[in-house]
Design brief:
heterodimer; A: about 120 residues; Immunoglobulin-like; 6-stranded mixed sheet; about 50% strand; B: about 120 residues; mainly beta; about 45% strand; globular
Chain lengths: ~120, ~120
């Protein structure tokens, strides 16, 4: 069965420090991969996505993610975290063969930013 | 351009009461999704519509949940009767119609937070 694992439930990072959020997926082939951010009381916002090609993808708000097929991973990174980045982050997959059916989400990682 | 609109934003009810959530998708988006997000979890699909047709309702608990999208635009999700375990955030999302080889991003509304006492 398809699944997404986000090993870290909660991460605290100092403002200005770098960030890496982990995501691993289980899928029969390479799925479409996504990172979403959810701020309190807000809907999910797409940060970036990977379909194919260059394994390093750039997103909004200074985020990037790297797809590693050998590790079935799609980790999210940011070189310098801002206090406004504090939020819940979700990794998700979708099927390339039936794209747009339904996203499968991980359980999320809560990011806290300390000053 | 307006995003996905959901109402109410918050709802508190007692168990066994009925409740309904409303969603207005982005104009022109034919595909509409209802997800449920339990505390500490990621969203999980309840039902997906393409226009008026529910094309995937396999995860919808049909004994108490129902949904409709009569004119292929707005949608309503209903629970009757509500149970304690239904406390969650109910998210609506919409996208352009799914076409072969073209991925259309899902846009999410802010959700309705339901508390069942």
């Amino acid at each position: 069965a398809q699944s997404v694992t986000q090993p870290d439930i909660h991460i605290t990072v100092s403002e200005g420090a770098s960030l890496e959020l982990r995501c691993n997926y289980s899928y029969g082939a390479t799925p479409y991969l996504f990172w979403y951010v959810q701020s309190p009381g807000q809907g999910l916002q797409l940060l970036l996505k990977y379909f194919s090609g260059d394994t390093l993808v750039q997103g909004i708000k200074g985020f990037e993610a790297e797809f590693k097929r050998s590790q079935s991973s799609f980790n999210l990174r940011k070189p310098s975290v801002h206090w406004s980045d504090a939020a819940e982050y979700f990794c998700a997959v979708d099927s390339p063969n039936q794209a747009g059916t339904a996203l499968i989400f991980g359980k999320g990682t809560t990011l806290s930013v300390s000053s | 351009e307006a995003g996905v609109v959901q109402s109410p934003r918050y709802k508190i009810i007692e168990k066994k009461q009925p409740v309904a959530f409303w969603c207005n998708p982005i104009s022109g988006h034919n595909t509409l999704y209802w997800y449920r997000q339990n505390l500490g979890q990621g969203p999980e699909l309840l039902i997906r519509y393409e226009n008026e047709e529910a094309v995937d309702d396999s995860q919808l608990p049909k004994d108490r949940f129902s949904a409709e999208r009569l004119k292929g635009v707005d949608s309503t999700l209903k629970i009757q009767p509500a149970e304690l375990g239904d406390s969650a955030v109910y998210l609506c999302a919409s996208s352009l119609v799914r076409l072969a080889g073209i991925y259309n991003e899902q846009f999410f509304g802010p959700g309705t937070r339901l508390t069942v006492l």
